[in-house]
From TrEMBL:
UniProt cofactor(s): a divalent metal cation
Annotated signal peptide: none
Protein name (Swiss-Prot/TrEMBL): ATP-dependent DNA ligase family profile domain-containing protein
Top-level taxonomy: unclassified sequences, metagenomes, ecological metagenomes
GO biological process: DNA recombination; DNA repair; DNA replication
One Pfam family hit: DNA_ligase_A_M
Keyword annotations: DNA damage, DNA repair, DNA replication, Ligase
Residues annotated as domain DNA ligase OB-like: 230-295
Keyword DNA repair: yes
InterPro entries: DNA_ligase_ATP-dep_cent, DNA_ligase_ATP-dep_CS, DNA_ligase_OB, NA-bd_OB-fold, NAD_dep_DNA_ligaseB
Organism annotation: marine metagenome
One Gene Ontology term of the molecular function aspect: DNA ligase (ATP) activity
SUPFAM superfamilies with a match to the protein in the record: DNA ligase/mRNA capping enzyme, catalytic domain (SSF56091), Nucleic acid-binding proteins (SSF50249)
Span of domain ATP-dependent DNA ligase family profile: 6-188
Amino acid sequence: MKHVKPMLAGKATDEQISKLFDKVKEMYASPKLDGIRCMIQDGVALSRSLKPIRNEFIQSILSNPMFDGLDGEIISGDPTADDVYRITTGNVMRSTGKPDFTFWVFDSFLHPYPYMGRQHELYHIDPTGIHPNIKILKTVSIFNMEELQAYEKYCLELGYEGVILRDPNGMYKHGRSTAKEGGLIKVKRFEDSEATILGMEEQMKNNNEKKVNELGRGQRSSHKENKIPKGTLGALVCKDKTTGIQFNIGSGFDDATRDQLWKYKDGLIGQAVKYKSFKIGVKDAPRHPVYLGMRDDSDMS
């Protein structure tokens, strides 16, 4: 059987979302997860690009014909952790090991029903009776922009990266949904993007004398001669895949990740990286870019 594409979330402005509420009155909302997309087709767990999930342990659990049609996100560990994407990618894209994971199911693409009908089918699944690693992602009803903003604030405070909205009457689309369709809409103040690594800058220790500035705050000058290399990553020099703009990513790394990326710096040139940046007020380079993880080609489409 020919594999079918997953439905991907479209972008929408607040104005477009407000028009959706005027049209459909009620939308279903859920937290936006930041893991690895997974669909079960013909008894095989496939990634977003329709390649088999690489980890053999996860594949052995999810590759079951009784799970056919389930669509969701694989998360390794806490779904609200700051480094959830990096940890999940490392575990899911490694063939060996038995990682802790949950398959958060939010749709079923085999049922030719509007989303409310597909959700009804999911809610009647007893995930604990199927497998403890499978859970159904619940939704809440949202009726206007004020409720959406309150729910978004709640999700962000918990540590999720945003909100997913769905028209209860929306059909499953094998491709990217649009703001007008409302079948699958992401609400995020930070936007995920992909970039190509062009180079790396070493982190430096500033040994310039600390002086008090006019505001009474401690400040060091930026004279290069008094800066000492620290032997670890300072920033990734990248080019955004969509805009072609060159910029640096200097945050989002823990010390271990900085050391690892610096150690293998020569082999990472040309590799893809996933990052997030604040989407409000962006004119040229991404605003406040934050490293999320290396982008594996099996999670790209």
